[in-house]
Amino acid sequence: MVVDNEVFVLEEINLPKTNRGQETLAKISKAAEDLFSKKGYYNTSITDITHKADVAPGTFYIYFKDKKSVFRFLVEELSHTLRREIAIAVRDCKTRFDAEYVGFRTFFNFVKKHRGLYKIIWEAQFVDDKLFREYYSKVADGYIEGIKQAQAKGEVGDLDPEALVYCLIGISNFIGLRWVIWENKEVPEEVFESIMRFIKAGAFKDK
Amino acid sequence: MVVDNEVFVLEEINLPKTNRGQETLAKISKAAEDLFSKKGYYNTSITDITHKADVAPGTFYIYFKDKKSVFRFLVEELSHTLRREIAIAVRDCKTRFDAEYVGFRTFFNFVKKHRGLYKIIWEAQFVDDKLFREYYSKVADGYIEGIKQAQAKGEVGDLDPEALVYCLIGISNFIGLRWVIWENKEVPEEVFESIMRFIKAGAFKDK
Amino acid sequence: MVVDNEVFVLEEINLPKTNRGQETLAKISKAAEDLFSKKGYYNTSITDITHKADVAPGTFYIYFKDKKSVFRFLVEELSHTLRREIAIAVRDCKTRFDAEYVGFRTFFNFVKKHRGLYKIIWEAQFVDDKLFREYYSKVADGYIEGIKQAQAKGEVGDLDPEALVYCLIGISNFIGLRWVIWENKEVPEEVFESIMRFIKAGAFKDK
Amino acid sequence: MVVDNEVFVLEEINLPKTNRGQETLAKISKAAEDLFSKKGYYNTSITDITHKADVAPGTFYIYFKDKKSVFRFLVEELSHTLRREIAIAVRDCKTRFDAEYVGFRTFFNFVKKHRGLYKIIWEAQFVDDKLFREYYSKVADGYIEGIKQAQAKGEVGDLDPEALVYCLIGISNFIGLRWVIWENKEVPEEVFESIMRFIKAGAFKDK
DNA sequence: CATGAATGAGGCTTCATTCAT
DNA sequence: GATGAATGAAGCCTCATTCAT
Q1: Which residues span the domain enclosing A141?
Q2: Would you call D181 helix, strand, or coil by DSSP?
Q3: Residue B96: which CATH number?
Q4: In Å, what is the separation between the CA of A19 and the C1' of F20?
Q5: Confidence band for D62, pLDDT divided at 50, 70 and 90
Q6: Does D159 touch chain C (CB under 8 A)?
């Protein structure tokens, strides 16, 4: 779970020119985040959002082109933040395994902190599949690069880098789903250590 | 990806008594499967389904209580079929690793064959979260049991069994997503072998 | 104002299969006709229409794709009926001038009878300009043909046939507008006779 | 197409006192003219107008009471200008037919030059019918007067003057519609000459 | 069993207008 | 004079569901 920085732009969003506008935009996107993560995209109406944000229905459309725009906005924001947090956390790691260790920790913390927000990305497949793929491709690309470099240094076994990366992403996602999303807990220390041992040395003996 | 058998019932479904009825039910659930997997649950209307099934809108409600019923029906069916296929495939495996090897293969084949059907389960989180958790719990429970037995025989390292199981499920899901769902290919042999080596012996060397 | 027959089809309309459906469709299009002609297209809402037709809002969309569809439907219907009425009325006319005489009469009667309906076509420019042009082109094409034949027989002076046709259409429209639409009367006999004399022999003497 | 002068006032318009204000008013009414003639009154929003005029939405209401006010403003302006141009052009005509000749020419030129502006008046029926009738009544009244005088001098045949006037207006409108509005051309010389011959000597021979 | 017309609540979105700055 | 954020009513349309035939 190690990724690089990146910037994003959205033409679908009308950036406010005044302070008041900025506050309103923030209120709306916060309300959307809450509701999407609690009830899902399709069970949240614009009225729900504006009601929770305490503004009139029309106000939504001052800032967002349509319903999907907030969704995309939140996903992009999530993507950005998560990748930055991991990049920073991982900065001083000596070995690739260290980086994975710190990366997984950061990821789980992130999911814990933005529990709802993270669920949103899972729904992107059914709201905007293109966005969803872009998100994971972007994450994977940086990740693969890191793995390749580590392989060059002899720190990673002879595995297809992309395969390995999707394995690691899959692991982090399902562990996060199981403990953080479902149980609303942190990943138990014992579980975390098991995962680390697993990705380092595997699980099965032949005989 | 090794699971045990099981039976399911659905009171929300009115099983037809005549042949004609059985055909109609089949047409409807097939149409629903196609559409859900292509456009997602929320972007598919009952009218879409009945139109594709070539029946009148009202006919839908002869067999299914409501829209969610077909969805549940499909998920249960998927769950049932998948678990049975894996159980059968894995029956004669000598070692646990063998069972994993065969289990993953079977799983990927299943996803390839029921590409659409498998996407449906991912959406269950946003349609019927309870169902979604039940599905994975059921899968995981049997899986955990198997791992524990293998650990008792010394075939599996000293890892938290549940953690391991969710790692393995995560891996299979994301690899399936990446190659089968996104690329509509089979998982490349090289990737498959990498995964096997990874789950067996891990990926990282300390120094 | 002499035009030929023609058939029209509209894919935007869902023809009902039952009697009840046919009645409903009729109720809706009648209500739309009334309201469009009274308040104009843009000041009439679907709710207005369904309310007047005594059906639920959703019912509208069983029969018509959207708001513009009823409008087009009415224009096509109008076009069809008018042209047929004129064609029939004019059938046995001996001279071209006779045909014009009868054609103008029929046209004014039609506008009187379908006062509202005829106003609708004037609005088409601002609702669906393509439709509007098609309407007049269709009317004009048949008309021009008739004039050319009459010219060949020496019954019409040496004028550009298309120019003459648009003059005659313009006359009928503005006379209809002035007396039928504005005053809600029939065109006074004296006026009618003046028009006939005018189109036959003109109005100005050089010196 | 011969009309007299006249002045108009509008209480719905707040005439600006400063230069800046005059410029702003001009920008707004120019933008409105463009948009109304291109997309029609009902498909043009205040925001469209202010956006095109490069001012804030609120600014609109400094000058105009509401949306209809600009529309009326433009129609009055059009009416005023057109009638003045014709009056001037026609001033020195010797015979009534000469005046018609020059009047039609001027009218077609006007429509060509203010293509959009002229379309606006056609829409007035559906925006503000009273305004529309006033416009044509005003045009017609002066016109009728002119015809009557010419009849007194023996220059015009024995026709109902009002009927004749509406015929002539109808002709000019439909010819303008057909060639200027639809084709965006000038009225072809041949067409123009045909019209002149038609209004002078008619089109039909009895046998 | 099957049909298909009918329902009506509710969702998304637009837009004329107001008003505090 | 000008701004631009905010309003909220109202419009168009969808769709799960019911029911008479």
Answers
A1: 19-203
A2: helix
A3: 1.10.357.10
A4: 60
A5: very high
A6: yes
